[in-house]
User: What shape does this take?
Amino acid sequence: MKKTLLIPLALAASLASSGLMAADAPQGAAPMPAEMQNMMKVFTPEMRQKVMALSPELKGTIVKLHAGHPRRAKETTLRQIMHEILSEYQSIASALATDNAEQAAEAARRLASHRIPKGGLLPYFPLDKVNNNDLAVLPAMNTIVEGSALKLAEAADAGDMPKAASYMSDIMTGCVACHQKFRGVPGVSANLMTPLSK
Ligand code: HEC
Assistant: This one.
């Protein structure tokens, strides 16, 4: 009950603190939060257009997701950060297998507090997925991946390794769901004629 009230409040607060700026928005478009305006300076015109067309709610969601990850990468791309996240996941697995609660908790917290890649998340998504419908799943992805990692850390802190281990599949379910939606097949060769079956 409390949660349903808190979400719009937090959203309103993050929008207010980011300082909505209407100045550069085209006629009739939703105002653009300040941080997104900054990120958009390095976007291509096509990506910029897609982002400008997002609803105020969705823009607020993106701002909130970025605000939840205060560390910013200078040059690191999303793909590189994804590989870091995979390393942390593997570190957690190794820790669980060796009954190392501290390693599990630390790696899980690092996984949950990854940096935001250069330019933010959006420019790494396919252009046709940058719309209100597809991006609306992002908070759910964040909750299942990072929320479960934080729960795993808490269970490890409490010394409950079986419970900690049980969150591994929740985390990976989130990785897989997001990849199904936003990532193509990794490493497809432009030098192959045969279309891939997927
Ligand atoms: C918000 C959606 C999202 C979530 C959640 C997510 N990923 Fe990703 N991931 C992506 C996208 C998009 C790419 C493609 C990035 C690119 O190529 O620019 C990617 C790429 C990757 C890659 C690089 C492979 C390749 O060559 O494309 C790895 C490794 C990876 N993710 C691991 C993970 C793991 C492990 C998790 C869960 C702990 C995870 N990801 C969660 C969206 C996500």
Notes: The pocket of heme C is lined by residues 78-79, 82-83, 85-86, 89, 124-125, 138, 141, 145, 171, 174-175, 178-179, 182-183, 186-187 (CB under 6 Å).
